[in-house]
Input
Amino acid sequence: MSYVLSCIATEHNPFLVALAALMCVVGSWISFSLFRRARDTRGSTRAGWLFLNGMASGSAVWCTHFIAILAFETPLSLEFDPLLTILSLMLAIVGTGIGFGLASSGWGRFAPEAGGLFVGAAIAGMHYLGMAALHVEGFVEWNVSMIVASVALVAGFGVLSLNRAMRPVTRWCHHGAAFCFFLAVVTLHFTGVAALTITPLAPVNPGHQPALWALAFAVAGVGTLVIGMGVVTALIDLRTRALADADRMRLSTSDPLTGLGNRAAFNRVLEDGCSWADASNSQLCVVLVDFDDFKSINQLRGYSAGDAFLTAIGARVMAGLQPEECAMRLGGDEFVVVKRLTDGGSLQGFLDRLQALFTDPVRASGTALSCPVCMGVAIYPDHGLSSSDLLANVGLALARAKQDKLSPVQFSDTVMDAAEKTRRTLGVLLRGVVERGELVVQYQPQFDLETGAISGAEALLRWTHPVLGPVSPADFIPVAEASGQIVGIGEWVLREACRHAAAWPSPFKVAVNLSAVQLRQANLPERVAAILKETGLPASRLELEVTETSLMADLERSVAVLRRLRETGVSIALDDFGTGYSALASLQVFSFDRLKLDKSFAGDLAMSKEARAILKTVLLLGQSLAIPVLAEGVETEPQAAFLREAGCPNVQGFLYSRPISDGALRAMILAQDEAGPRAAARHA
Ligand code: C2E
Ligand code: CA
Ligand code: CA
Output
């Protein structure tokens, strides 16, 4: 190698060497820029890029070689064979082009390295063909080991460069690849030249020939043109791509129908707005707008009228907004408007203006159309400390606005919405609750007030969530009812209660609560009959409890179901009697087998003489209708004493027993069987 270096330092014109190096650096870099585009495209585009890639790399290699040869400060006169010279240029262009093509072809695991080898071979071929084109008047000797070294270097750097370009691990690999390509050309050239020794045969010219200088500059000029063309192409491509990206960005954030921003734009506006509010210690108002009955425009006038309506609304809203306000369409008939509250300007004025912008009639499809809206309003940071919280809360406010027909604009109410959020969370957690075995049924025994004997038991559902712990049925039953999950859960409770009761030591009745949703199920009687058959519990031992409220939800249907249920032999109790508006009306529509007096009456007995009067009246009513009464929620001895005196036959309450497990109930029944009724109550 020391010979190679001294050859560069002593036998070359430094200016032309620098020019050659410059050609090589720029050519290498632009070659790999073009190659990156070829690599990332397919089909004819890729072929086009590869063509430019081959042109740039081939010219760079060739120009570097020729300028460097001309830089060779030899007193000999140099001549070039035109055909071989042109062939060497062709070889460089085609060879490197094919090499780059192969490297990016994806043919086989080592295609990049094979392509690199090909590129190396093309550079070496170009060099030695170029050297063959050089005619000097002298005796030419080649050093074979230097030739081998030069080929090994160009092959090694060629492989390395395309390996880095095709298998990058950092963003620097692209530059590394170009640098390896540069090294391939340079090391080959100077090792290859050093392999050559020329002994002059005739007297030599002193000094460098001006014709060769001109040739050097001509070659450099042509090379610069070709490489420059590559640079310009790459730059045009870069710019076109930037424009296309900007276009794509604009399209991806705008709603094609109305021209307003879309959901993606909204997310950004919201994020930016929250940051602005934080930085300026101000507030941001988010209004979610939803048309109340947009469906009917589509249904009555067709989808094109619906689209025309939304387009017209979008245009009017856009025109009617003031600075610091921004509207977007989230999809369907849902819009959102964000306002930066700068100077405490009137929020109500803004909301009124929005209402008019959205609800005043617009001309669409030849007619005047209008549609009422609901709006949910949330203020950052008052109604949520993060954009996602704010979004969730404004959604809940809108949901409330949709329900409340009288006030279609609803502000986020964190207390109310927290309850709604809990309900939604419970709804999600309830999914699959039966399958996961998180439910159990407990039993609260019912007693004969006179004898103290157990007379039956009410099945009460218990849910223990692995993280939340025990959840009250008063909280989760309404959620399960709203989502319809109560049907599956209710059937599970019924089966479980019947299965347990069938195995009790004494044949007491088991009472199971029915929800309003279950009561509307037309096939409920068949389901109940099937469960009784499956568990072996006689129908006479099952009592189903319905509340007056659930009955009134759909009176006719519920009563029809109750009648068919009664036919299967089960008895029906009216639960929470006295809490509804039309307790007496319920008694008219169906002849119940039992009245369960709501626990609030027992609670009030000590305090109010009205409660005592009502209780006595209800007991009389029961007697005259021949319906036995059970008082719920008996907690104290004085309450029990009053009920006993008033002639209430049955009771249920904490005084006697809290709801207990099936096993505990069985133990209680056994204790009663062995030692008598009082023992059972004591056992509790
Ligand atoms: P409910 O049917 O009125 O059930 C009686 C409720 O009163 C039970 O509450 C019971 O634990 C409670 N209780 C009993 N004795 C006393 C007492 O002396 N004092 C007081 N303060 N409370 C007493 P729980 O178990 O929390 O159930 C609440 C409600 O959940 C039930 O009211 C019922 O409407 C519903 N529920 C429970 N299990 C089921 C079920 O399996 N299906 C359906 N659809 N609803 C159920
Ligand atoms: Ca009940
Ligand atoms: Ca009750």
About this structure: The chain has a mean pLDDT of 89.
